[in-house]
Amino acid sequence: MALERIKQLSSHLYGAPKGIAALKQKRPDDVVITMAIRSPLTKAKKGGLKDMTTDELMLEMFKQTISHSQFEPALVGDICVGTVLTPDPVYHARGAALAAGFPETVPIQAINRFCSSGLMAATTIANQIRSGQIEIGLAVGVESMSQNPDKGGPQQAEDVGANIAAKDCTKPMGWTSENVAEDYNISREDMDEFSAKSYQRAEHAEKSGYFAKEIVPFPAYQNDPTSGTRKKVVIQKDDGIRYGTTQENLLKIRSAFPQWGKSRTTGGNASQITDGAAAVMMMTREKAEELGLNILGRHVSTAVAGVPPRVMGIGPIFAIPLVLKHCGLSQEDVDLFEINEAFASQCLYCIRELGINPEKVNVNGGAIAFGHPLGCTGVRQIVTGLNELHRRKGEVLLTSMCIGTGMGAAGIFLRE
């Protein structure tokens, strides 16, 4: 019944220019992207960013933003930071922005809708620009899973936990992956085949230099256990990509959650625990042209949908059709999909259920191959998607992800 209700809600449309021809018409008030960059994504507790505190990670991302934005930081009307696990995020974000060189006049906010937080940050800034509140805004996604490991859901009040769906909100994400695999008959073999392709695509993209235009060399502090001091190094590439990965290799990995379902989820077919940051600068087309900036793309629309918490991974099945309807587009109009690979079970099921051409999805690999820093992912997908859209000279990018507690989000972007 819950899924049927969601489908009914998804059928309601919002008024907006619809269809690819209408969307391609350029207007002064278009919300455009003039900068899209990210850090390398590195393994939590093991990788190049593991010793960076959260505010240091934010500080470096803000410095990179100022360096690459090509205009005075005082012109930024607002900053929105998507982050999930960071305690007291506005303290860290505000301090890091000021230390990086943003003047005191530039305000900041933080947003948390779990795995979609980066996309929500970009959407918040886009909506502020679209409504005329600001002309220029910065969306950032940041997560240090080394410094802030995921400790799971909190204790619930008795009256809240008495509701079955509410109780499911706090259950481990691995449990939801096993529920999707069991409920929708996603086999271990298919999950590992999907995951192997993610690794293979990421390896090919990295070796071919496809990420060179999106990754900025990222200075990072690393602890030296022998001397007790910190040294500064420059991290230049993702470190989670396992070269030579095959389905046969992955099938040898033992189940991560033998206590649940058919135990099909493993460390090889689920997203890696990762540190990283990404940023997109957004403004009106009129302002970008006034400043003489190169326009990379345009935000068109974002949609969010709710699903049962026990199968939270199916969120994109409802968010993707909803955002396409908002824009008057079909799946065939989309050149590239960036769908977060939280778990192979859920991502593979979403692709199958929607009938999406798998050759259009995560063409350079996904979170299984190089990680899912929770708050960063939504912005990272925009950065990666726009970069690849330019390389292929495509027009339409759709980004999407499932969201803990039972939601899904999706966004549409156009290449200039």
Automatic annotation (TrEMBL):
InterPro entries: Thiolase, Thiolase-like, Thiolase-like_sf_Thiolase, Thiolase_C, Thiolase_CS, Thiolase_N. The active site is at 115 (acyl-thioester intermediate), 372 (proton acceptor), 402 (proton acceptor). Coiled coil: none annotated. GO terms for molecular function: acetyl-CoA C-acyltransferase activity. Pfam families: Thiolase_C, Thiolase_N. It catalyses: an acyl-CoA + acetyl-CoA = a 3-oxoacyl-CoA + CoA. One of its GO terms (cellular component) is peroxisome. The keyword Lipoprotein does not apply. Pathway: Lipid metabolism; fatty acid metabolism. SUPFAM superfamilies: Thiolase-like. GO terms for biological process: fatty acid beta-oxidation; phenylacetate catabolic process. CDD domains: thiolase (cd00751). Belongs to the thiolase-like superfamily. Thiolase family. This is Thiolase.
